[in-house]
Design brief:
By secondary structure, the protein is mainly alpha-helical. Among the domains are: 29-143, no CATH class; 479-515, no CATH class. The chain is built from 20 helices and four strands. The protein has helices at 3-26, 54-62, 64-72, 75-79, 81-85, 88-91, 145-149, 194-197, 210-214, 244-247, 261-265, 277-281, 311-314, 328-331, 344-348, 395-398, 411-422, 447-450, 464-467, 483-486, and strands at residues 166-167, 170-174, 435-436, 439-443. A hairpin with a 2-residue loop joins strand 3 (435-436) and strand 4. The longest helix has 24 residues, at 3-26. The radius of gyration is 63 Å and the shape is elongated. The chain starts with a helix and ends in a 29-residue tail after the last helix.
């Protein structure tokens, strides 16, 4: 095309455009929103004549950040399916006046997953204004944890991004892989609070030596060095991993396995120790060295009190009854190998309450189970066998002292009070003539058979005391003539002598024999 034709066409197009601008402004449907007000006289800032879709290009040209999101697939416009595919004017229409709201956005129904910061955990319940400041675009809200949690970061920024440890579930919920630090947490260290090792939230250059943290727990006070791990494990400080059976020539058995190291080794576990029993148990040696130093011949490592010595098996004097519970020193007061007497009296002379009257053969009556309770004695082998109620009477009822010999045998010596109440001593002291040992209240007496004065007639019904009126100490003797009792009944005043029975009968005093 000749140059003059091209120039003529260009001049014509410019004239048309200048002529059309006023007409376009006349056809404008309304005022632009306040944000676009300065473009109201420049339609071409937003519209491209004769090009459909050109408006989106002009929008993205002005709003470069949104254009970048659309190209990269980030932000709300790049992630939301509708925002990334529809024309801008579909959501952001203009020409509605200065105060019109041209952003179709509902805070209550907005899905934050369509942004570069999906809400998780506790963020779901946080109000929008807590992160999105008024007057600023939503996209300008900060994303870094410390932007919102600076006051909660008591590490004061020394640990970098909060999200490396903390989770959105809650600020107190955190995750951290300590293995990445070069000091893996094992055993009791897993449950230990961070502050136990990282004082004042200082994590850099934390010492790794055991003694750096456990100096106060070191009961050895540094005497065993700082290589605590040689004996102690990480599961429990008080339970060392040191194997005494494996690492020494003195295996620990019984109670020794539970004894603290310092009990035998003192302050320095590396110092050699004497392995003889008395080296540790000298104070517990109740024998005061009399039994030698071979404690293991009798004592067990399970218990110092329990012994393996069997008196029945290892001696010819088996211990029975209460003897089994006696301490060795109660009998063996000198050397263990010194011969001891075996008779009871040698040990129990001080317990003999009989004053030697019963001899020295204590075992004839006493048993080994109990000196007081386990007593056996057959009274029938004495000259006073026990019959009836005498069998259940305690020994002390008759034997007023442990010196049993010389105890009186006469009934009245024990039953004097019973006789005083019943007979007043009028029937003598030989209670056994009437009473028996079965029961004091049971008695039998045959006057006709046991005396030379048989009772006949009315005499049979008389009370004993009717004739026996006076106390007697020796043998019971009464006069047998009638007048002794019936002198008051003798109306003859002794004129017919003293033999009343010559005329009278025993059935009735008033009855007289026929001539």
């Amino acid at each position: 095309m000749p140059w003059f034709l091209f120039l003529s066409l260009a001049l014509w197009s410019a004239q048309v455009a200048m002529a059309a601008a006023p007409s376009e402004r006349l056809a404008m449907p309304g005022e632009l929103v306040r944000a676009h007000a300065e473009l109201e006289n420049d339609c071409g800032a937003c519209h491209v004549r004769f090009k459909e879709g050109g408006q989106d290009e002009r929008c993205r040209a002005c709003h470069g950040a949104i254009d970048a999101d659309l190209q990269a697939g980030t932000g709300f416009h790049g992630r939301d399916r509708a925002a990334s595919t529809l024309e801008c004017r579909h959501c952001h229409s203009d020409h509605r006046g200065r105060d019109a709201r041209i952003v179709l956005f509902d805070v209550d129904s907005f899905d934050h997953r369509a942004t570069d910061f999906p809400l998780a955990g506790a963020h779901h319940v946080v109000s929008c204004s807590a992160c999105h400041e008024a007057g600023r675009a939503y996209r300008e809200a900060p994303h870094a944890c410390r932007d919102c949690h600076r006051k909660d970061d008591w590490h004061m920024g020394r640990l970098g991004d909060c999200g490396d440890c903390h989770t959105p579930v809650g600020w107190g919920a955190w995750r951290f892989d300590h293995d990445r630090t070069g000091f893996s947490l094992e055993g009791g260290h897993v449950e230990a609070d961070c502050e136990r090792c990282h004082a004042n939230a200082r994590y850099a250059r934390t010492p790794k030596a055991c003694n750096a943290c456990h100096d106060l727990d070191d009961v050895h006070r540094g005497a065993n060095g700082e290589a605590c791990q040689d004996c102690h494990g990480q599961d429990q400080w008080r339970r060392p991993d040191f194997d005494h059976d494996r690492d020494t020539d003195y295996p620990l058995e019984g109670r020794h396995a539970m004894v603290p190291c310092a009990a035998c080794h003192g302050d320095d576990v590396r110092a050699p120790r004497e392995i003889a029993c008395r080296a540790c148990h000298e104070r517990e040696d109740a024998h005061n060295g009399l039994y030698g130093e071979a404690c293991q011949e009798c004592h067990l490592s399970k218990s110092w009190v329990r012994t393996t010595f069997d008196h029945r098996r290892d001696t010819d004097y088996p211990l029975e009854g209460a003897h089994r519970a006696l301490a060795c020193g109660q009998c063996h007061r000198g050397s263990l190998h010194q011969s001891l007497p075996r008779d009871c009296f040698s040990c129990h002379q001080g317990d003999d309450r009989h004053g030697g009257q019963q001899g020295q053969r204590c075992g004839d009556c006493h048993g080994s189970r109990s000196w007081v309770v386990d007593v056996r004695f057959d009274h029938d082998l004495t000259d006073f066998p026990l019959l009836g109620m005498h069998r259940v009477v305690p020994c002390e009822a008759c034997h007023l002292s442990p010196e049993f010999q010389g105890t009186p045998r006469a009934c009245v010596r024990c039953h004097g009070r019973d006789d005083a109440r019943a007979h007043g001593g009028r029937l003598g002291g030989d209670c056994a003539q009437c009473h028996n040992a079965t029961d004091w209240r049971l008695w039998t007496f045959d006057h006709s058979r046991q005396t030379d004065y048989p009772l006949t007639g009315a005499h049979r019904d008389l009370d004993c005391h009717a004739c026996h009126t006076q106390p007697v100490e020796e043998e019971v003797r009464l006069e047998t003539d009638c007048v002794t009792c019936h002198e008051g009944d003798d109306v003859h005043e002794g004129g017919f002598g003293r033999d009343c029975g010559h005329c009278h009968v025993t059935s009735d005093w008033r009855e007289v024999k026929s001539p």
